What does this fold into?
Amino acid sequence: MDGKRSFTVIEVSTASGHIKGRENLGGIFRSKTPISAAKKAGTKICAMSKIHGQCTLFITIKETTRGSLGNEYIYRVKRIRNDRVVMRGDREIVYRYKIVAHSLKPEDVKADWRTMVQLPSFESEPN
It folds into this structure.
């Protein structure tokens, strides 16, 4: 076994509270941690939505690994424009975006996504 777990997206909304469509739900994201699976899902959803530049989403994912408890995790995923050039041998690779994610506790989220309680800022680092 490679130590990876399986996750699926069960709910997606934007920062303004707009619930994203059913086409963004589901999918299988294999990763070692739930936060990295949320980042993968955020990358895919922003690309499918044809959003260029910054994209902020609230993503709820559920673990679907065989034998797991099926825990749900909530993340605020933000894609930031960040052009970065990396040389691999003689090839130049350009990374256009950086993905940042923060976990949210269920008690931080009310029944409706549009009424979010005070969220941590991406710019501030914990002390």
